[in-house]
Amino acid sequence: MKKKYKCLVLDHDDTVVDSSASIHYPSFVEYLKIARPHLADKYTLEEYFEKNFHPGILELFTEEIGLSEEELKEEELFWREYVKNHIPSAYPGMSEIIADFKAQGGIVVVDSHSVTENIVRDYKHNNLPTPDHIYGWDIPKEMRKPMPGTIFDIMERFSLEKEDILVVDDLKPGYDMARAAGVDIAGAGWAYDIPEISRFMAERCDYFCKTVEDLRKILF
53-67 pLDDT, tens per residue? Predict the structure, then answer.
């Protein structure tokens, strides 16, 4: 029997909007030209996706590239400014899924490493239904993915049980968060086709969606 989820916890970048290839990766390269010129041509888009997947963007900056705390702050300011002037497009079909899920009484929460104000802007620009709550990069570090704190907060905030929640995410931090919280996860595989990531998510997630339509089939 198909599960009827009460809450959809949506990642933002490369899950709801097509943003890494058009915004985050170019911003990353432009910052490296300033902070680490010798590394500016080192990472391809595919490698950027792979590093985001594992070990994660913060670990890439600190452990591999070696940014200091001060440089991390500079990079975040650079990224915020870049994102202000570039708006990603939502994947076709996402607006309808969110609207239909909310229409049947479902709760939609965004849980993302993007800044909250940019998530709000992206939803408005793409005419996406307004989420019931947003957890962005602005929340305390110890609450961000892959930590499960936001899921526990959602359960308390909306009086939900673990079985009521489905996380939809394209990367390992989202998977780790869902597993740590004990909730189901659907891997979002429509943004790119990178074997390492697809294989990991397909083998370990409760569902793996190659297309947005695959997600619809899970929910309705």
Answer: 888 888 999 999 999
Q: Quickly tell me which residue has 């079909």 as its tokens.
A: 93
Residues 200 and 40 sit within 8 Å (Cβ to Cβ): no
Q: Parallel, antiparallel, or unpaired for β 89-90 and 17-18?
A: antiparallel
- What are φ and ψ of residue 128, in 5° steps? -85, 145
Q: What is the largest CA-CA distance in the chain?
A: 55
For 88-139, the pLDDT digits (tens) are 999 999 999 999 999 999 999 999 999 899 999 999 999 999 999 999 999 9
pTM of the model: 0.88
Beta strands in the chain (DSSP E): 7-10, 17-18, 89-90, 107-111, 133-135, 165-169, 184-188, 207-209
C-alpha to C-alpha distances, 163 to 74, 167, 172, nearest whole angstrom: 40, 11, 20
Are the CB atoms for 175 and 148 separated by under 8 Å? no
Question: Which residues make beta-bridge pairs with 220?
Answer: none
Collapsing DSSP to helix, strand or coil, 168 comes out as strand
**176: three-class secondary structure by DSSP:** helix
Residue 176: what residue type? D
Radius of gyration of the chain (CA): 17
DSSP H helical ranges for 20-133:
25-35, 45-53, 57-59, 69-84, 94-103, 116-125
For the segment 34-84, what is each residue's pLDDT rounded down to a tens digit? Answer: 999 999 999 999 999 888 888 888 899 999 999 999 999 999 999 989 988
Dihedral angle sign, alpha carbons of residues 205, 98, 141, 161: negative
